[in-house]
Amino acid sequence: MDLLAKRTQRLLGSVIDSSTSLVQRQRHDVIRFAVGSPAAEAIPTAIFDELAPKAFTADAFDYAATDGDRQLRAALLELLSRTSEATTGERLTITTGGMQGLDLFGKLFIEHGDLVVIESPTYTNCTATALSYGAELLEVSTDGDGMIIDELEAAVERAGRAPKAIYVIPTFQNPAGTTMSLERRLRLIGLARRWNSMIIDDDPYGMLRFQGQEIPNIRALADADPLVYAVRTFSKIIAPGLRVGWVDTDPEIHQWLINARQSMDTCTNLPNQRLVAAFLSAGYLDDHLQLQRERYRERKIAMQSALAEHFGSRASWTDPDGGFYLWVTLPGVDTQALFPVALTEGVAYIPGPAFSPSGRFPDALRLCFASMPPDRIREGIARLRRAVDQLP
Ligand code: PMP
């Protein structure tokens, strides 16, 4: 359409979301490992019913403060003060989900042609946002310990210029499920300091650790140099439809976030902020998280043992300490060609190339173990094997 602004040529939409909406449209019984949503039974609807009269008072239908409702900000600061993510009000902005935090970063910081380093594979909804603001992306491979820092250093040297930002999902990465080691976090911070690059630390899953030791977060390790822009969300720990998240960053950036929001959406939906505030203030989150961690651990194990049973040495997969995803590699299998066959068999996943702007990982796929109960997981993996067997 020739009336569209030229910049829309860089507005590509999300490959992840188009695969998941194709899956949602399927009428027959499809076991869904594609969508990165919490289990339906993990959404605390009974508690929402109980809290609604307290949360939805008349003033909850007014405009909210741009950086967030006072009640939610207070409850969130209190919650974070009990974790390694303790922060202060001048650093905190409530956003409409994690995605808005990522989009605001692009709006405020990305100049046309700026270099943004990303993990490969990564969450490409973020890279789509960066591209829409004119970023040039530099993909750096990962392994079981996160981004390979030697490769990062070499890639930036080859590029011949410093990146504006380095985007990482350090904990229970989407899609790989892996966690960046402490040593790599420290080296990343050292390089960002040297290059004067910002670090975008995107962590929607960190509170869903079901095994292993917590690793100190990048903001605490960086200690204000380099600048860290931390993006967080309640989407995976309470419910994605609430669209409530937050950004924790330098107080000077906080003021710019407010300016940007005032010409964008004014504020995040206030009734939803009040519902989250009531959920936190009533003290429901700790038990809720404990339950989800146990649930997801059981589901991860069910998925791994079904993969071992049905694929054995024909496939390999990651072993996350938390979060939602397994990253599976099926050597010699084209997972994009497999996708329609798998849908016909009644199982859905996201093909590997959806997680790389340059279409790497043709023989990999992402499976979300969080949203299906163990018996459905076992059946889904059996279906996946049947689909693979049908490929020429
Ligand atoms: N970052 C990552 C790594 C994610 O996995 C997601 C959700 N899939 C988001 C950001 C976006 O979160 P939200 O749904 O709160 O916008």
TrEMBL record:
GO terms for molecular function: pyridoxal phosphate binding; transaminase activity. CDD domains: AAT_like. Its cofactor is pyridoxal 5'-phosphate. The keyword Transferase applies. InterPro entries: Aminotransferase_I/II_large, Class-I_PLP-dep_aminotransf, PyrdxlP-dep_Trfase, PyrdxlP-dep_Trfase_major, PyrdxlP-dep_Trfase_small. Residues 30-384 form the Aminotransferase class I/classII large domain. GO terms for biological process: alpha-amino acid metabolic process. It comes from the Bacteria. Keywords: Aminotransferase, Pyridoxal phosphate, Transferase. Homodimer. PANTHER family: AMINOTRANSFERASE (PTHR42790), KYNURENINE_ALPHA-AMINOADIPATE AMINOTRANSFERASE, MITOCHONDRIAL (PTHR42790:SF19). Belongs to the class-I pyridoxal-phosphate-dependent aminotransferase family. This is Aspartate aminotransferase.
